[in-house]
Design a protein that fits this description.
Blueprint: E1 2-3, E2 9-12, H1 18-31, H2 42-50, E3 57-63, E4 66-78, E5 83-93, H3 102-117, E6 122-123, H4 131-139, H5 155-166
Parallel strand pairs: 5-6
Antiparallel strand pairs: 1-2, 2-3, 3-4, 4-5
Helix pairs in contact: 1-2
Length: 168
């Protein structure tokens, strides 16, 4: 647990934080112009983060019972380094709390997790139109991986791809 300068606390998420985390996820979807994209629920968050075998993790910034910011992440593995890393799925600070140091504190906590556990990298994506975030990340020393393009398979294409393997 880390005390922040305004009395907020940065800590690992815990059971009971689900609604606040979900509110941040929805606010992020709204900001990213995808307000109807969130299918997640508090129950799903509870199972994912706090179930018997969690595969995703979260840090939160909380003050007076309010979740003001989140970082949701999971482990990756680099075959080149032979070590794990952290993939930051979502970093979100409610708009009224930006410039309060919460984003830096969350990224610093993730970097410390990497150092403490001997993970080789901390990675994430950012929308190419999100200039405020790009500038923020650049100021922290994050490099763009311009030569890499993210690919994704979902929905019907995912089902069709799975079927290709089953038909052999």
């Amino acid at each position: 647990m880390t005390d922040l300068r305004d009395g907020a606390v940065l800590r690992p998420a815990r059971a009971g934080d689900e609604e606040g985390i979900l509110a941040c996820i929805q606010a992020l979807a709204d900001y990213e112009r995808e307000p109807d994209a969130v299918d997640n629920t508090a129950e799903m968050i509870r199972a994912t983060l706090f179930g018997d075998d969690p595969r995703a993790f979260a840090f939160v910034v909380e003050r007076e019972g309010e979740i003001r910011a989140i970082a949701i992440w999971f482990l990756t593995y680099s075959t080149w380094t032979g070590r794990h890393g952290i993939w930051l799925e979502d970093l979100y600070v409610h708009e009224q709390y930006r410039s309060s140091g919460y984003g830096v504190a969350l990224l610093a906590a993730l970097a410390a997790e990497c150092i403490d556990k001997d993970y080789s990298r901390l990675e994430w994506t950012v929308l190419d139109w999100n200039e405020p975030a790009i500038g923020f990340y650049r100021a922290l020393g994050a490099e763009a991986m311009d030569e890499w393009t993210t690919r994704r398979v979902t929905g019907d294409a995912l089902t069709a791809l799975a079927a290709r393997g089953a038909s052999r």
